[in-house]
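Handoff note, outgoing to incoming analyst
You'll be picking up this chain. Sequence as last confirmed:
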Amino acid sequence: MFEYIGRTVGNYRLLRGLGQGGFADVYLGEHLHLGTYAAIKILHTRLANDAVTQFRTEARTVAQLRHPNIVRILDFGIEQGALFW
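Most recent structure output, in case you need it:
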């Protein structure tokens, strides 16, 4: 279930769901000021602290990678109790 559709997370308005998994949901987000689009991954809030640590580690790792087949991390944060990148 995509519970964040229509909400704002960071500088992005979440327009629609793109995919779901056991760890997180992915949304299409529109940047509020630039009008650009990005995939926004939001960790499920029901997960334990070890999943939060894993999510942060994943974001840091992916942010360091540079390859045409790997998505770039544009932002990372906590908004309304939800971790996103």
